[in-house]
Write a structure and sequence with these properties.
- It is built from 15 helices and eleven strands.
- With 478 residues, the protein is an alpha/beta fold.
- The chain has one domain: Amidase signature (AS) domain (Amidase signature (AS) enzymes, Alpha-Beta Complex), CATH 3.90.1300.
- It has an eleven-stranded mixed β-sheet with strand order 1-3-2-4-6-5-10-11-9-7-8, sandwiched between helices.
- Strand 2, helix 4 and strand 3 form a beta-alpha-beta unit.
- The protein starts with 10 loop residues before the first helix and ends with a helix.
- Bound molecules: glutamine.
- The site of glutamine has 13 residues, from loops.
Length: 478
């Protein structure tokens, strides 16, 4: 098998190829690993390749095939996993020096489910440190380059997971989204990225950044593959008390191609910062949806202006608490140069964390401190409720919302690193959906004149993933 073949395969194509004995799962795993190894110097998208684990999974699939057993829904599919999701026995760094040698003793629920479905984990992907960032430039393992344009960022924080699927070294990948980290890289790399409803996918084994906002979700090259992966990893998990007991719909069965009569809302607040080319591509996408029979109308989400401030208070507050556990005692990295225990804590955290993580820990500690809690943290929680109420009102009028993912396409490496505020502003259209905990996704809707992909965002009401996939699939088919 040619290594390049991996970049053209779909989940269904792999199943048919395995059944027709065109290739074995082992051949697929070997090809994916070889392709990943050859491509990685260009993009730096993988932190680690996991040949043993992938080949072991492949052999199980091949054995099932030769015994005539039924194949799992992801049989023989090469999958990459963002390095904030723990994998038993396989180094998990969170893109941080402080966890550079951490070998988890257990697997995340999503990882267990995808391997039980026959998926083959070929490696762990690079990301912003502890998923904090919008460009993948905050990784202790170096930035990731966008495979579509190597001088540009792939987006963040799940930049590596988006890049490997766009580059074709994996067919699917898992990312995590707290404020846009799946949708924005998917948009920048020209692939599908899905943030499910909060609680739809267990967070067990997802290293916590901001627990009330963290989601695990899929990247894929087409809507059907993304739907299949979500179907596999979704569902209640006793190990995560915030995971929802709601039944998982067969998302791939919802892809009828028919969206006639669906009411789609376009938020008027969501276009004002978009660049000309992005706005034009989104307008074209909306016209295409109309031509498919959707009933498009303007809506308003008035609290949008406060979303970034609200997010960066809540997310940093939660992060400051979640990251307190990295103290040089419980996890791997410990500074070698301390005389007292307090020095050891300080030096470990000082040397182990990167600048952006420290900035957020300080900000989060400040907004939770006595005297500022009411003014910042409590206020932000109230704003969060207003943002959720905006969506609730909107979904009483429309079935789904369509909008840009990002105000601009992939920017150049280094372009925004000197100004954290500027970087934070790139999340303006993704953060609201995250704060409301609703399902949202990015689907490619064209390219700028420079060939940079632009994503259309589709947002639906809680647990309405099936409808979201139906719209995305109908759009993708055009
Ligand atoms: N870019 C946002 C941030 O830096 C979102 C990150 C994410 O979703 N993990 O926090």
């Amino acid at each position: 098998m040619n290594a390049n073949t991996i970049s053209t395969l779909t989940v269904d194509g792999i199943r048919a190829g395995l059944r027709g004995r065109e290739f074995s799962a082992r051949e697929l795993a070997e090809a994916a690993l070889a392709h990943a190894e050859a491509q990685n110097p260009k993009t730096n998208a993988y932190i680690l390749l996991s040949p043993e684990r992938a080949l072991h999974a492949a052999d199980r699939v091949d054995a099932a095939l030769s015994h005539g057993e039924e194949l799992g829904p992801l049989a023989g599919v090469p999958v990459a996993v963002k390095d904030v999701i723990v994998t038993k026995g396989l180094r998990t760094t969170c893109g941080s020096k402080i966890l550079a040698d951490y070998i988890p003793p257990y697997d995340a629920t999503a990882v267990i489910r995808l391997e039980a479905a026959g998926g083959m984990i070929i490696g762990k992907t690079n990301c912003d440190e502890f998923a904090m960032g919008s460009s993948n430039e905050n990784s202790a393992f170096g930035p990731v380059r966008n495979p579509v344009a190597l001088d540009r960022v792939p987006g963040g924080s799940s930049g590596g997971s988006a890049a490997v699927v766009a580059q074709g070294t994996a067919v699917l990948s898992l990312g995590s989204d707290t404020g846009g980290s799946i949708r924005q890289p998917a948009s920048f790399c020209g692939i599908i990225g899905v943030t499910p409803t909060y609680g739809r996918v267990s967070r067990y084994g997802l290293v916590a950044f901001a627990s009330s906002l963290d989601h695990i979700g899929p990247f894929a090259r087409n809507v059907r593959d993304a739907a299949t992966l979500l179907e596999v990893i979704a569902g209640h998990d006793l190990l995560d008390s915030t995971s929802a007991p709601a039944p998982v719909e067969p998302y791939s069965a919802a892809l009828t191609g028919d969206i006639r009569g669906l009411k789609l809302g376009v938020p008027r607040e969501y276009l004002k910062d978009a660049t000309g080319e992005t706005a034009a591509l989104i307008a074209q996408a909306i016209d295409r949806l109309k031509s498919l029979g959707a009933d498009v109308r303007e809506i308003s989400l008035p609290a949008t202006d406060y979303a970034i401030a609200c997010y960066y208070i809540i997310a940093t507050a939660e992060a400051s608490s979640n990251l307190a556990r990295y103290d040089g005692v419980r996890y791997t990295f410990r500074s070698g140069s301390s005389d007292t225990l307090t020095d050891m804590f300080q030096n470990t955290r000082g040397e182990g964390f990167g600048a952006e993580v420290k900035r957020r820990i300080m900000l989060g500690t400040y907004v939770l401190s006595h005297g500022y809690y009411d003014a910042y943290y409590l206020k932000a929680q109230k704003v969060r409720a207003l943002i959720a109420a905006d969506f609730k009102k909107a979904f009483a009028e429309v079935d789904a919302i369509v909008a840009p993912v990002s105000p601009f396409p992939a920017f150049k490496l280094g372009e925004k690193t000197s100004d954290p505020m500027e970087m934070y502003l790139s999340d303006i259209y993704t953060i609201t959906g995250s704060l409301a905990g609703i399902p949202c996704m990015s689907v490619p809707c064209g390219k700028t004149q420079d060939g940079l992909p632009v994503g259309l965002q589709i947002l639906c009401n809680h647990f309405d993933e099936a409808r979201m996939f139906r719209i995305a699939d109908a759009f993708e088919r055009m």
